[in-house]
Amino acid sequence: MKRILITGALGQIGSELTLKLRDIYGADNVIATDIKKNESEAALSGPFETVDVTDGNRMVEVAKKYNVDTVMHLAALLSATAEAKPVFAWNLNMGGLMNGLETARELKAQFFTPSSIGAFGPSTPKDNTPQDTIMRPTTMYGVNKVAGELLSDYYFHKFGVDTRGLRFPGLISYVALPGGGTTDYAVEIYYEAVKNGKYTSYIDKGTYMDMMYMPDALNAIVDLMEADSSKLIHRNAFNVTAMNFDPEEIAASIAKFVPGFEISYHVDPERQKIAESWPNSIDATAAKEEWGFKYAFDLDKMTKDMVEKLRQKF
Questions:
Q1: Which of the residues are catalytic?
Q2: pTM, whole model, 2 decimals?
Q3: pLDDT tens-digit series, residues 229-269
Q4: How many C-beta atoms lie closer than 10 Å to residue 195's C-beta?
Q5: Domain coordinates of the chain in residue numbers?
Q6: CATH (residue range 170-211+243-282+297-313)
C-alpha cells in the first residue's frame, strides 16, 4: 500500500483507520472519503473528498485524481439499522461494494472490505465456528456480507483483483460512537459506566458474542494488506476474534475499574434475535496460519484502557 482511498472514512472503523494509515504511509497518501465532511481529525488531517459510494463514476474520479493503488471500502449500513431499512441497505451495501470493486479493477488496485460474524446464521455451528462452514444468515446485513464475500472472491478469480477481507466480530472503541450494530451494547456500556455508573442492556444475560478492541482490529487490517499474497487461501473472509463474553462478564470486568457499576436489562427483541443467530465463539486458526494474525487485548486489558480513555474524553 502506498496511496490509499478509504470510503466511509468517518465511520466507526474509518475514523481510526484513516489516522493509523496516515501515521504509517504519510498523511497525503491516505485519501479519506465519506458522504459528508465533519470536523473530525480524520476529515481534517489529510486529503478529504465527498463521495457517495452509490455513485461509481465519482468514486473512480477521486481514485484516479489521487492515483491510488489501494481501495479500502468501509461504507455500509450496519445490522440493526439495515433491518429497519432493508431495501436501502441492499442498495447501499451491495451497490457501494460493486462500485468499490470496479474502481479497484479499473486502477489495478488492492482492495479491502470487512465482512462480519453477521454473515453466519442460525444453522451455523455455534461454538468455535469454523472458517469454512454453512452460512445462511437471516438478516439483510448478513445476506449483504455473504454476498460481499462471494463477490470479492469473484473479482479475484475473474479479474485478478487483489481482494482481501476480515470477518470481524463486534468492534469496541472509545473514539467513534456506535453506528447501529447489534454488538454496539458492548460500546455503549462503557460510555454509560463512565458517565452514569450504570447501564441498561438491550442484549439479554447469557448471550455470548465475539468481540475485538479497535487497536487490534486496525493492526489486523494492516497486517493482512501487507501479507504475502501467495500465502493467502481464504482471501476475503478471515475469521478474526480476540475475546468472547456475555453482558454479565463485561459488566463484571467494568466493575473492577468502576466501583459500584450496575447492569440491568430491557431486552430489544429484534436485536436479541439477531444476536442469537450469531456464533457464541469463532475459530481464527486460518488467519493465524496464513498471515500471522494476533491480538494484544483481552477483556480486562481492554476495559482498563476504555475506562481510562473515556474518563479523559468526558
A1: 141
A2: 0.94
A3: 999 999 899 999 999 999 999 999 999 999 999 999 999 99
A4: 12
A5: 4-169+212-239, 170-211+243-282+297-313
A6: 3.90.25
